[in-house]
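ARCHIVE CARD
Drawer: 12
Card no.: 0347
Subject: one protein chain, sequence and derived structure
Cross-reference: see card 0346
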Amino acid sequence: MSEPVSDWTTDYDILDPDYLADPFSVWDDLRGVCPVAHTERHGGSWLPTTYATVTEIARDVEHFSSRSVGVIPPLLDAPDVPLLPAGVPPISSDPPVHTWARRLILPWFSPARVAEYETYTRELCRRLVDGFATTGHVDAAAGYAQQIPVRVIGILLGVPETMSDEFTSWVRDVLEFAHIPERRIRGRDNIVRYFINEMEQRRANPGDDLISYLLNAEVDGQKVPDGHVLGTVALTLIAGVDTTWSAIGSAMWHLATHPDDRRRLVAEPALMGTAIEELLRAYSPVTMARIVADDIEFHGCPMRSEEHTSELQSLAYLVCRLLLEKK
C-alpha cells in the first residue's frame, strides 16, 4: 500500500483511490495552484492539467517522444520472455515512422470499413441483451460492455469468437494490474506468444484480416518488419478492446447515475450523436504519456531527459484528434 498523498502538486499518485474515484476535482485544484504538477512515484512524471499545455506537449515531438506512452513505467523483461521490439506502433512511434505506420492501417479503420462490422455488432448486442433480459439484472460492465469489443476486434484480426474470454483476461492483466508485475508480464507474454503463432499461420494461409494484410504490406518497396506487425496487432487487441469496453461502461454508468440525461435521450433520440461525443470527451478511457527526449524547461518546470509527462484522460480524446490532424 502506497503512502497517502499529502501534496498533489509535488507528490500526485494516479493509483490513489481518491484520484481513481474523482480525478476531476484533483485536476481542478491543480489548475488553480500548479498547472504542471510533479511526482516521484511510479518512476517519476509530470502532469500538465490544462488544454493548452497538453496540446503543446503532444505537438512538440522534438522534445516529447512517443516511444514510451505508458503512464506506468514499462516492465523489466525477464529471461526468455518474448518482447515487442518495435513497441506498439503507431502510438509508440515518432515521425517519420509514425507517419507511415498510421497511414498503413488507416484503411482498416475508415468509416466504410467499420460499417462492415455494424450488422454483426448490432446482432451481438441484441444477443447479449436477450441473454439477461429475462433475469431482471446483469453486471453491465462484465456481462455487456466487456463482451462487445473483444468479439468485434476478433473479426478484424481473423481470430475465433471462442478466444474472447482469453483475450479479455490477457488485456485486463496488462492494463489493470500495474501493481502486480507478475500479472502484467503474464498478460503481455500470452498476447505476444499468441500473435507470433498467428503470424506464422497467416504466412502459410493468408486471409482477409489485418494480420495477413500487414504481413504482406510494403512501405517504400520494403516489407513491414515482423516486429512492427507484431506490435501493431498487439495494440489493436489491447487498445481496441480496453478503450471500447471502458467507453461503453462509462456511458452506461453516467446514464444510470444521471436520470435526467437518460430521460432526455429517451425523449429526444436525435441527441444520441451529441451524447456519444460528449460522453467520449468526459469519460475518455485513454491516458497517454510522452517521454522527455531532451532536457527542457517547460513553463518554468525543469524537465529532464527520460522523465514522463502524463496527459489527462478528459483531454485525450481531443488531443488524439489534434495529433491525427498534425501527422
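Annotation on reverse: Strands lie at 36-39, 45-48, 64-65, 218-219, 222-223, 289-292, 296-298, 301-303, 308-310. The chain has a mean pLDDT of 87.
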